[in-house]
Amino acid sequence: AQSVSQHNHHVILSEAASLELGCNYSYGGTVNLFWYVQYPGQHLQLLLKYFSGDPLVKGIKGFEAEFIKSKFSFNLRKPSVQWSDTAEYFCALMIYNQGGKLIFGQGTELSVKP
Amino acid sequence: DGGITQSPKYLFRKEGQNVTLSCEQNLNHDAMYWYRQDPGQGLRLIYYSQIVNDFQKGDIAEGYSVSREKKESFPLTVTSAQKNPTAFYLCASSLGFSGANVLTFGAGSRLTVL
Hints:
The complex is a heterodimer of chains A (about 110) and B (about 110).
Chain A: E1 3-6, E2 10-14, E3 19-21, E4 23-26, E5 31-38, E6 44-50, E7 56-58, E8 64-68, E9 73-78, E10 87-95, E11 103-104, E12 108-113
Chain B: E1 4-7, E2 10-13, E3 19-25, E4 31-38, E5 42-51, E6 54-57, E7 64-66, E8 76-78, E9 87-94, E10 104-105, E11 109-113
Parallel strand pairs in B: 2-11
Antiparallel strand pairs in B: 1-3, 3-8, 4-5, 4-9, 5-6, 7-8, 9-10, 9-11
């Protein structure tokens, strides 16, 4: 069965540190990939998405992610985190010919110390 | 503002009682979804609907029921058959049901069974 795996359950960083959150998926066909963020007490929001084209995608608030097909990975990066980035981050997979269903990873909780 | 409204935000239920969670969207989206969020497990798909008067089971449909009588509404009933109903429930919608759609999420309903 298709699945998404996020490597870290909880990451703690100091402000200005660089961030990389791992995401791997298991599916051999065409996929669309997403990162969603859930700030404390807020809606789940789309951070960025990859459908096709340039494998390096940029999202809101300075986040970016790189799709590496050979590694089945879609890691999220930010060069310098802020306290306001404290949130839970979810990687998700949509299988291209299976409609709009999203398959989510377990989530990574990011805590940024001021 | 266009969006998804879920109600109630918090709900307490005694064991053995059914409860219905409301989800209304004014985005004119065709597809709607219900996800369940548990700590450390990410989001799991309960039911989805591609169009009015049609819906399909997701990965964890047992103990849940839905209806889609109107385009803008997709209520979820958590029945007494659901063995572990305490969770955070998220409703989402998308314009269509292709693999290239982006899901928009509501703020969620937190159900606690006493």
